[in-house]
Specification:
41% of the residues lie in helices and 14% in strands. It has 461 residues and is α/β, with parallel strands linked by helices. α16 links the parallel β11 and β12.
């Protein structure tokens, strides 16, 4: 029997646009995802999040499902346009009340809230009037919004995450155009990332100066990263794998831990990579209390100099010309329904890489999970073997990383329940049943029996 530390955090996670619905309810403003998903062709079968899981009306029921699972921590995001309908200015009392009720209900059921301030649903007004994350003023707007949340919820919320996966916002939203707001460029992603980092730092600074001492909370950021395994033992492929990790993760974490972008990015992106002013470096450097990580999959990375990169893998398109890598998979690797490789060893290696590069920070895996088709029987029962095996193997890899010195402090399963899976709509998701949103099955995603056993017994068999 292998035990995790007694204070290890076991939780699950969601995001506002993926589950809440109520897109025009009680004074909420529109978001860029409200607009993007209603444009034909942007999302699988033109699905959208108008209703989603109807969490807005059924959060009490959902929290009871969490309690039945044995969940001790719940990471959810706040919809910026539900709090500030235009992104700045007037506060929406109904939005404040909604999230306050969720927080109170969680605490009543002994579930610790972990709140993410931004999970991709930017107020549409900020995008239409001020160019969204391209605006040089967006850091100030974000800090204003964050301050409203700290003021109203910080008496009860002690764990804050500023941004979820800024790589996705920058690359998929402004580079490849497959996520909202749907822009394509090889320059804008670097500008957006620059503004995201400054916005994060402004919010953290505001929290530390005005709220942290009296509210006694912690604040950080969550970045996503796949592991990049060298395709061969050659020096060039090892360099390519390292380069791929730095373009993926260090793009956002080096400024926070070291004060500036990786040298490899400065050299390769050149004038398209914005430069931090000295005062911005000082503000960003050290602007986190923990290392948040979303991890799902692994690819081989090979040097692509002198070769043409394939375009069938997202990581090989858009900004790949700056990295000059080719990604590939081992045919022996099993895959999820989203065609993501299942490689638990990659999770362990990434944790070790982060720990060594950033001087052993406290790490929380804020998302890890899988999508599988379930094939329920005539009674609606699901033989959930694949999902159980995925969680068991990845959590085992986490335990091995801890044994080798990684300060891993928590693990959040993605996701708590079926949801709107962005551009994939409701067809290939992390949930249990792939059905239309109007008949969406509201069943917890993780295996209730096995996952609850891990949480409650604090053990991995």
């Amino acid at each position: 029997m292998k035990y995790f530390p007694k204070d290890f955090v076991w939780g699950t996670a969601t995001s506002s646009y993926q589950i809440e619905g109520a897109w025009l309810k009680d004074g909420k403003g529109l978001s860029i995802w409200d607009a993007f998903s209603h444009i034909p062709g942007n999302v699988f079968q033109d699905h959208h999040g108008d209703i989603a899981c109807d969490h807005y009306h059924r959060f009490s029921e959902d929290i009871q499902l969490m309690k039945a699972l044995g969940v001790k921590a719940y990471r959810f995001s706040i919809a910026w346009p539900r709090i500030l309908p235009q992104g700045i200015g007037r506060v929406n009392p109904a939005g404040i009340q909604f999230y306050s009720k969720i927080i109170d209900e969680l605490l009543k059921n002994e579930i610790t809230p972990w709140v993410t301030l931004y999970h991709w649903d930017l107020p549409l007004d900020l995008d239409m009037k001020y160019d969204g994350w391209l605006s040089p003023e967006i850091d100030r707007y974000f800090a204003e919004y964050a301050g409203v949340c700290f003021e109203h919820f910080g008496d009860r919320v002690k764990h804050w995450i500023t941004l979820n996966e800024p790589w996705v916002v920058s690359t998929l939203g402004y580079g490849l155009g497959i996520f909202a707001p749907g822009r394509k460029s090889n320059t804008e992603p670097y500008q957006v990332a620059h503004h995201l980092l400054k916005a994060h730092a402004q919010a953290v600074s505001f929290y530390r100066e005005k709220f942290q001492s009296r509210q006694q909370g912690i604040i950080g950021i969550t970045n996503n990263c796949d592991w990049r395994e060298p395709a061969t033992f050659t020096h060039t492929d090892r360099e390519a794998a390292q380069r791929a990790l730095e373009f993926f993760l260090s793009w956002f974490t080096d400024p926070i831990y070291f004060g500036d972008y990786p040298e490899v990015m400065k050299n390769r992106v050149a004038d398209r990579l914005p430069k931090f002013k000295p005062e911005e470096k000082a503000l960003i450097h050290g602007s986190t209390d923990f290392f948040g990580l979303n991890h799902y999959t692994t690819f081989y990375a090979a040097d692509a100099r002198g070769q043409e990169s394939p375009t069938d893998i997202i990581g090989n398109s858009g900004l790949a010309e700056d990295q000059e890598i080719i990604l590939s998979s081992d045919p022996a690797w099993k895959k999820t329904e989203m065609a993501w490789n299942i490689v638990p060893e990659g999770c362990k290696k990434l944790l070790l890489w982060i720990s060594e590069r950033y001087n052993h920070p406290d790490i929380y895996i804020t998302e890890n999970g899988c999508a599988f088709d379930d094939h329920p029987d005539e009674k609606g029962r699901v033989d959930d073997h694949d999902r159980i095996d995925f969680y068991k193997r990845y959590i085992h890899a986490c335990h091995e990383a801890i044994e080798e010195g990684v300060n891993l402090k928590g693990y959040f399963a993605w996701s708590f329940m079926d949801n709107f899976e962005w551009a994939s709509g409701y067809s290939k998701r992390f949930g249990l049943h792939y059905v239309d949103y109007q008949t969406l099955k509201r069943i917890p995603k993780a295996s209730a029996h096995w996952y609850a056993q891990v949480i409650q017994n604090n053990a991995l068999h």
